[in-house]
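Attaching the record inline, Q. Sequence:
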Amino acid sequence: MTQLMANQHSQTEGSKATTLIDETVRAFDQGQAASLQEGLSLITDWFSSVKNNHEAGELMQPLTELRDELQTGTPNAGRMQQLLNQLADQTERLAGETEGDVPSRLTTLATALRNFAGQFSTAV
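Structure, as predicted:
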């Protein structure tokens, strides 16, 4: 019974993670992540998702810095580009450490992060 509950918890956590990945990719694809409020909301969701996940813990620092940059109200385009690329790099590394359908989703997310970061290069 305990093992069954642990498996259900693991599946629930996994489905939450894939849902968050998919929602984030959709936000970037639809341009919603361009708004400060949407960006801050996504970051809050990611904090909740990765705070207890040892493998994803390395995402906390760039997420924190990205949140802080957005909270200034006038984020620096160069800094945003740097942080998004850093998150993309770490997301790709994380994809290599996961199993199932998560790696392909993380790779898609890394691509979306890089594409969005590229938009800041024209704003610099």
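The CA atoms of residues 68 and 75 lie 9 Å apart. Residues 2-121 form one domain.

More tomorrow.
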